[in-house]
Amino acid sequence: MAWKRLYSTSSSNSGYHVGIVESVSGSTIYATGFTIGVDNKNGRYITQEMSNGQLALTFNEAGSYEAYVTSYNSVGYIDSNWISFIVYDTTPISSELLADKYIAKVGEEITFTASSELASAYWIGIDNKSGRYLTQEMPNGQLTLTFNEAGSYGAYVTSLNSLGYVDSQWINFTIYDSAPTYSILEANKVKVAVGEEITFTASSDLASSY
């Protein structure tokens, strides 16, 4: 059983606009016909024959949906797995950007991950001391970059769908090309009883580990 979704923009979430055509297709080697079943929170939303294994639908009610197909011939039938999708009627309501590290040497990879509720695409913006360094789409909400210029950087993500967008908060990270210039160790206390804890804190300007 094979499924294919067709949508006008690349989607990192399963978010689809109310009224946008959602096309699905089914195939199996011995089937002579296909019937799709679509459910939502209220139960069965639609049961319909798929001409030549394809069907284009629009959805006028926002929410979460599930669908499966029954493939059949004159001998019998078999049901597919269920697939899930979302129909939305609002702009994204959240936007977050994370990095797998916040300090890296020149040429080292940093992977950025974006997340949002109801977003169908993500664009990252990165600034440094000179201004805008990069604006780039994040396929499937992820992007791995290397930086060839040392310095301090800030980044945010724009999470969008066909109804609008929302920007995340900025995150900061540092790219270095030299060894740390200082190293400090501090303790939260200098006299303790046997068995009492001491917490040590290390700090440095360009250290990636301690």
Question: What would you note in describing this structure?
Answer:
- The protein has 210 residues and is an all-beta fold.
- It is built from no helices and 19 strands.
- The protein has strands at 15-17, 22-25, 33-40, 43-49, 54-57, 63-72, 77-79, 83-88, 96-99, 103-105, 110-115, 121-128, 131-137, 142-145, 151-161, 164-167, 171-176, 183-187, 200-204.
- Strands 1, 3, 4, 6, 7 and 8 form a 6-stranded mixed β-sheet that branches. Strands 10, 12, 13, 15, 16 and 17 form a 6-stranded mixed β-sheet that branches.
- Strand 15 (151-161) and strand 16 (164-167) form a beta hairpin.
- It is elongated and about 80 Å long.
Write the layout of secondary structure elements.
Blueprint: E1 15-17, E2 22-25, E3 33-40, E4 43-49, E5 54-57, E6 63-72, E7 77-79, E8 83-88, E9 96-99, E10 103-105, E11 110-115, E12 121-128, E13 131-137, E14 142-145, E15 151-161, E16 164-167, E17 171-176, E18 183-187, E19 200-204
Parallel strand pairs: 1-8, 10-17
Antiparallel strand pairs: 2-5, 3-4, 3-6, 6-7, 6-8, 9-11, 11-14, 12-13, 12-15, 15-16, 15-17, 18-19
Global geometry: elongated
H and E string: EEEEEEEEEEEEEEEEEEE
Structural class: mainly beta
Helix content: under 10%
Round the mean pLDDT to the nearest integer and report it: 86
The helix count comes to 0
Q: Main beta sheet: strand number and arrangement?
A: 6 strands, mixed
* Rg (C-alpha, Å): 26 Å
Q: N-to-C terminal Cα separation, in Å?
A: 52 Å
Low-confidence parts, pLDDT < 50 over ≥5 residues? 1-23
**DSSP strand content:** over 45%
Query: What is the count of β-strands?
Result: 19
